[in-house]
Design brief:
The chain is mainly alpha-helical. The protein is 74% helix and 0% strand. The protein has a single domain, classed as lambda repressor-like DNA-binding domains (434 Repressor (Amino-terminal Domain), Orthogonal Bundle). 11% of the residues are buried.
């Protein structure tokens, strides 16, 4: 989710992988792996990308967090039930 969105933002803003890599001070392969979902991204890098792309950081953060959740539960048969329980707990705390 996040990786594809970041790729779309990069392309829409006219950046090449090497441009983004230079701005993040990482190698091109790292940026490519972020976009393909093969490499996790830190909150700090996410904030920097939101700045670079003039994108909504909260929306990107939601995608970032959704990816993290998906990576934990994707192969678990109880995923939907567990997510529903977590949603109830989140609402109770809010």
């Amino acid at each position: 989710m996040l990786g594809e969105s970041l790729k779309q933002l990069r392309i829409a803003r006219g950046y090449l992988l090497k441009d983004v890599a230079a701005l993040l001070q990482v190698d091109i392969g790292y940026v490519s792996r972020i976009e393909t979902g093969g490499k996790p991204i830190s909150k700090k890098q996410l904030a920097k990308l939101a700045e670079i792309y003039a994108a909504n950081e909260e929306e990107l953060h939601s995608l970032w967090l959704a990816d993290k959740i998906l990576n934990v539960v994707k192969d678990d048969r109880q995923a939907e039930r567990s997510i529903a329980l977590a949603q109830k707990m989140i609402k109770v705390k809010a």
